[in-house]
Amino acid sequence: MDGAPITTTGGVMSIPPKSLKVANKVIVWLQRRGLPIGTMHLLTVRGRKSGEPRTTPVSPLTVDGERYIIGGYAKGDWVKNVRVAGEAVLSRGKAQERVRLVELPEADRVPVLRAFPKEVPHGVPMFVKTGVVPDATPDGFAAAAPNVAVFRVERY
User: Fold this and answer.
1) In the predicted model, what is the mean pLDDT of residues 40-65?
2) Which one, of 140, 142, 2, 24, lies nearest residue 76 by Cα?
């Protein structure tokens, strides 16, 4: 990784490595110029301290007709911002929608996490490489339920 100290919760990283923050900036830049990458969207949420809009790439997935976003780092800034704001803008290209993000309790996260490897396969290596999940299987993702945030996406 990038040499930064690893903060863990139960052996799982709880804050993103600095290298991921740099990669996210590149992805945001590309997306804003109309170059979509995989299933990625941009999530813009008001900063909990600054009040300024903050944008990060996310990959929504659909499970049983509902859309979800996984916050692999429960202590990551965008997750904290969503918990305070509760609402955001989800965009892809020129399309934007205002959404409400509702955090699921731990017991309800497992089906969504189990679906992630199949629904968002290009996102799996990042979760494994950074230690968010122990392995790339549905069981590996389900095991991360206590340590990640899962938000249901609701239209405003």
Assistant:
1) 93
2) 24
